[in-house]
């Protein structure tokens, strides 16, 4: 019950997102059916209607019995229409190069229930030919009944047949019905489009939105960061546009961290992701700037000693930094860069060492974190992805909490589960997750300048 209720919103969301698949399916289905119908040979139908009655008897009883008798014989009369006794004279009259058996496929007979009437319908590729076939079939049926049917005492036919609705050439083709075929093709194409959209949704295991992240991760979602050009440009987005929607997203994350601090103070925050390219450095830099915006003293450490990115976002020189401090080549004050006009300091990665894991797990690293955590209100450590290398797991014990970044455009549910399991096995305290690059929520009114 819970699985179906949880999956229904996902499927509905898939239809809203992939509506164009349904539309394209309907359009292609309608166009394909219309094209196929246009290639078919047009067929025309003409109908001749006949009425059968008994000629003998004048009393009401006789007439009633005669009507019952006529109705009981209607099926026999219908078989005559489709037999050679009627169709061979039709072939001879119209000079048709065919046989009664083949011609019978173009003739259909219908008898309305509880009536003494018959409808003879002929189908042909020419309107006039269809009318001629229906008319000739009706006339020769009357001739056969007059000659071969039962007779009265005076030798006249006991059954009188009258044509009350003569066949006329139709104005429009009966088959193929292009309008109907296009409609049915559109319906079928639309259904295929719906099935395709739902299949894509079922096969797409990416963590697309906050609801899926809650369901897949289990840990609290501390915030959602929407796609924004400034974030993609690797800049301090919250500093460049402090009134933007992006800035508001990071303010919400900062507020969520405040509630996470209720049980125990979080001064050292480790930021990581499952796989490369999920935006952990972007989140680290802008979260640090957001905390500094409240006049907190913040130190951002780039502990990704394999593919450092923090210095690009901060616009500083990253050649001297954490590695040099740990190797005691320079002091912390020399390696640290202060962001002008803020309370944010940045410690870049420095030179990339041949043994990153050994340096990060050294006693000197523990001493450094202990020293800076007593000096700054917040220390944010940007670390490599958990599923690529073990650096984040090795650093987790010296941090007060871990923030896991999830990319809405690429993170799979299985990778998210594996990342969280890896961190928990390493002794990490996972404070929650942040969904990055989420689809922006459209509002009728905008309170923020779009970034």
UniProtKB/TrEMBL annotation:
A GO CC annotation given for this chain: plasma membrane
Q: Is Transmembrane a UniProt keyword of this protein?
A: yes
Keyword Cell membrane applies: no
Reaction(s) this enzyme catalyzes, per UniProt: L-tyrosyl-[protein] + ATP = O-phospho-L-tyrosyl-[protein] + ADP + H(+)
One Pfam family from the record: AAA_31
Transmembrane segments in this chain: where?
18-39, 182-203
Keywords, A to Z?
ATP-binding, Kinase, Membrane, Nucleotide-binding, Transferase, Transmembrane, Transmembrane helix, Tyrosine-protein kinase
Q: What InterPro entries does this protein's entry cite?
A: AAA_dom (IPR025669), Bact_polysacc_biosynth/exp (IPR050445), P-loop_NTPase (IPR027417), Wzc-like_C (IPR005702)
Q: What class of enzyme is it?
A: transferase
EC numbers, comma separated: 2.7.10.2
Domain annotation AAA: ranges: 277-411
Q: Name one GO molecular function term.
A: ATP binding
Q: Which PANTHER family match?
A: FERRIC ENTEROBACTIN TRANSPORT PROTEIN FEPE, TYROSINE-PROTEIN KINASE
- What family is this protein classified in? Belongs to the CpsD/CapB family.
Protein known as:
non-specific protein-tyrosine kinase
Q: Which organism is it from?
A: Brachybacterium avium
């Amino acid at each position: 019950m819970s699985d179906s209720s949880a999956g229904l919103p996902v499927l509905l969301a898939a239809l809203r997102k992939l509506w164009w698949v349904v539309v394209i399916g309907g359009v292609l289905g309608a166009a394909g059916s219309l094209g196929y119908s246009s290639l078919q040979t047009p067929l025309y139908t003409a109908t001749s209607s006949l009425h059968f009655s008994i000629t003998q008897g004048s009393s009401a009883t006789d007439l009633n019995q005669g009507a019952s008798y006529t109705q009981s014989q209607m099926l026999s009369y219908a078989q005559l229409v489709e037999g050679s006794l009627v169709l061979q004279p039709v072939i001879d009259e119209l000079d048709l190069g065919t046989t009664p058996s083949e011609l019978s496929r173009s003739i259909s007979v219908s008898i309305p229930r509880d009536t003494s009437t018959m409808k003879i319908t002929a189908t042909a590729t020419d309107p006039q030919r269809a009318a001629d076939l229906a008319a000739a079939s009706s006339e020769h049926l009357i001739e056969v009944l007059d000659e071969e049917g039962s007779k009265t005492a005076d030798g006249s036919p006991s059954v009188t047949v009258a044509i009350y609705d003569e066949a006329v050439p139709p104005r429009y083709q009966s088959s193929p019905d292009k309008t109907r075929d296009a409609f049915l093709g559109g319906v079928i194409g639309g259904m295929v489009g719906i099935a395709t959209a739902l299949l894509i949704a079922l096969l797409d295991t990416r963590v697309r939105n906050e609801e899926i992240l809650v369901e897949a991760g289990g840990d609290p979602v501390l915030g959602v960061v929407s796609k924004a050009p400034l974030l993609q440009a690797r800049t301090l987005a919250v500093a460049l546009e402090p009134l933007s929607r992006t800035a508001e997203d990071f303010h919400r994350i900062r507020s969520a961290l405040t509630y996470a601090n209720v049980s125990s103070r979080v001064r050292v925050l480790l930021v990581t992701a499952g796989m490369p390219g999920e935006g952990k450095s972007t989140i680290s830099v802008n979260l640090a700037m957001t905390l500094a915006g409240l006049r907190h003293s913040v130190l951002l450490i780039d502990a990704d000693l394999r593919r450092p990115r923090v210095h690009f976002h901060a616009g500083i020189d990253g050649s001297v930094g954490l590695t040099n401090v740990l190797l005691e080549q320079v002091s912390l004050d020399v390696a640290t860069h202060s962001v002008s006009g803020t309370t944010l300091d940045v410690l870049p990665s420095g030179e990339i060492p041949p043994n990153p894991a050994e340096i990060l797990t050294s006693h000197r690293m523990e001493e450094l974190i202990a020293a800076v955590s007593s000096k700054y209100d917040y220390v944010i450590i940007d670390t490599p992805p958990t599923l690529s290398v073990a650096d984040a797991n090795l650093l987790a014990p010296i941090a007060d909490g871990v923030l896991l970044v999830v990319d809405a455009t690429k993170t799979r549910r299985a990778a998210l589960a594996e990342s969280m399991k890896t961190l928990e096995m390493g002794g990490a305290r996972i404070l929650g997750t942040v969904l990055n690059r989420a689809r922006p929520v459209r509002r009728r009114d905008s309170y923020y300048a779009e970034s």
